[in-house]
Design the sequence.
């Protein structure tokens, strides 16, 4: 499940040398816009009867293809699977896990208190993303996330979100 990540109103935040940027729609490249739209569409397929926090994710594969995923909740919370991992696992099943170059995340729902704050991957998803980035020899793999209103977008790299990853 994606976590909310607070960024003040300024556009770039640095923490431990990480560069995290918040941009508007027009500042995104077309391929990033497509990936974010796919993540938002995937969120509609989420199974979230407990939290009502619907998360969709999409990964861009090396051939430009987009593979999506949505969170799936269980009454036994530990068995819940995040959208980011579903998308990566699905890409793996389709033979594309070695070519993932970017991931996009979108979340909405009744439990989301601040519609203007983009979501960020949870720790487990950050770890999986770091491992995928390491296997792909792509430490700067892009991670993009959108707020619920779909008008603010967080841009970071896996290494920004999980510095000194265990891989």
Sequence:
């Amino acid at each position: 499940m994606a976590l909310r990540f607070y960024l003040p109103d300024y556009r770039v935040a640095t923490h431990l040398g990480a560069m995290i940027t918040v941009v508007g729609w027009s500042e995104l490249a077309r391929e990033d816009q497509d990936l974010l739209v796919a993540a938002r569409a995937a969120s509609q397929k989420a199974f979230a009867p407990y939290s009502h926090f619907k998360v969709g994710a999409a990964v861009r594969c090396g051939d430009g293809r987009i593979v999506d995923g949505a969170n799936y909740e269980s009454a036994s919370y530990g068995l819940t699977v995040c959208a980011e991992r579903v998308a990566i696992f699905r890409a793996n099943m389709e033979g594309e896990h070695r070519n993932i170059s970017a991931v996009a995340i979108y979340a909405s729902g009744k439990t989301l208190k601040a519609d203007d704050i983009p979501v960020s991957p949870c720790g487990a998803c950050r770890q999986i993303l770091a491992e995928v980035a390491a296997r792909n020899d792509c430490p700067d793999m892009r991670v993009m996330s959108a707020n619920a209103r779909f008008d603010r977008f967080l841009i970071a790299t896996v290494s920004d979100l999980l510095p000194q990853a265990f891989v």
